[in-house]
Amino acid sequence: METRFLGASGLKVPALGFGVGTFGGKGPLFSAWGNTDVEEARRLIDICLDAGVNFFDTADVYSDGASEEILGAALKGRRDQAIISTKTALRLGDGPNDVGASRSRLLKAVDASLRRLGTGYIDLLQLHAFDAHTPIEETLSTLDGLVKAGKIRYLGVSNFSGWQLMKSLAIADRRGYSRYVANQVYYSLVGRDYEWELMPLDREEGIGAVVWSPLGWGRLTGKIRRGQPLPPGSRLHDTAGFAPPVDEERLYRVIDVLDEIAAETGKAVPQIALNWLLQRPTVSTVLIGARNEQQLRQNLDAAGWSLDAAQVARLDAASAVVPPYPYYPYWNGMFTELNPPPVPVGLG
Q1: Residues with Cβ < 8 Å from 183, sequence gap 6 or more?
Q2: 49-103 pLDDT tens trace
Q3: Would you call 180 a catalytic residue per the annotation?
Q4: pLDDT at 323
Q5: Choosing a second label site near 263 at 20 to 30 A (CA), which of 103, 154, 195, 275?
């Protein structure tokens, strides 16, 4: 498995990581994702490690902590082989301080995650969302203290806007606090909003993208087709209300091209969708998920080969949308002399 640096840090991560939101299966959202128990988790982790995938991503809210517990139990005795990534900030509990990124919450949440994971340190801790109620200095100073205490090794964010991330980085630089090196983002052929602002920011500031839901919330698994109902096993039956919206015609346009390239390459539709992401700027690792061994092995085979330039261009064109203001002037040429786009965005 290819390894890449996580942003500008010295930590190398595999190009594919394993998202363990399927571990536990508690609650209306996560029960639809999967209900992997400890025994099955060990088997899936065995397969990942054999393939060179040692990056495992979870969160304290996944199945109310059960995902962390199962991951920790499945890694028992081989913790040193794994890179553990978890997240906090979303509500976990009924108390007024059971949400957010305050000093009180972060200290409590990190200790709780360490207990559930059965480890003395977290390789990568990401804030699951921006907390507008807590001063950024309070959040960053607390995280910096946790790094210095050895409880956390690297820091990241998830679901931040551009200004939220940039302001946090500026304060960290000014105060000498530990810097964010990872940005866990939604990015797929049917969800390219990351490219408008966050991708150029990540490239400029040395932040590595950790991609979640790379198959567009299950829409690019190869099971959805134009004019046909959702297949019985699709998680969209139960989780469509949580899913990022997608224009239906654009979705089917992308699927048509994926089908064409699948016929040309002999690769499965999800493998092609994942491989396209592996070639995008700033991407450090793409998180694959699986409810069973068959799904996992298929997704692992998305790495180790590359789409050719013409195939990438066709996928770029099929998935393109008009960039929002103020980014669309790049494409009519008015401002590119003064402010050229730092990365290929939007129209591929």
Answers
A1: 7, 156, 157, 158, 160, 165, 198, 202, 207, 208, 209, 210
A2: 999 999 999 999 999 999 999 999 999 999 999 999 999 999 999 999 999 999 9
A3: no
A4: 80
A5: 195
H helical segments located in 63-207:
66-74, 103-117, 136-148, 162-175, 198-205
Q: What is the 3-state secondary structure (H, E, C) of 292-308?
A: CHHHHHHHHCCCCCCCC
Q: Cβ neighbours of residue 186 under 8 Å, at least 6 residues apart? A: 159, 193, 194, 211, 212, 213, 244
Q: What is the pTM of this model?
A: 0.92
Which helix (H) or strand (E) covers residue 276, if one does?
A: helix 269-278
Residues 62, 180, 194, 330: which is the catalytic one? 62
Residue with tokens 């890179």: 83
AA identity, residue 132? A
> What does the alpha-carbon distance between residue 341 and residue 346 come to, in Å, rounded to a whole number?
10
AA letter at 224: I
Residue ranges in the chain modelled with pLDDT below 50: 237, 345-348
Domains and CATH numbers, the chain: 3-247+271-306 (3.20.20.100)
User: Measuring CA to CA, how many Å separate 322 from each of 185, 192, 319, 331?
Assistant: 20, 11, 10, 9
d(CA 108, CA 167) in angstroms, rounded, equals 25
Q: Are 282 and 211 in contact (CB under 8 A)?
A: no
pLDDT of residue 346: 43
The reported pLDDT for the residue numbered 227 is 74
Residue 78, pLDDT score: 97
pLDDT at 261: 98
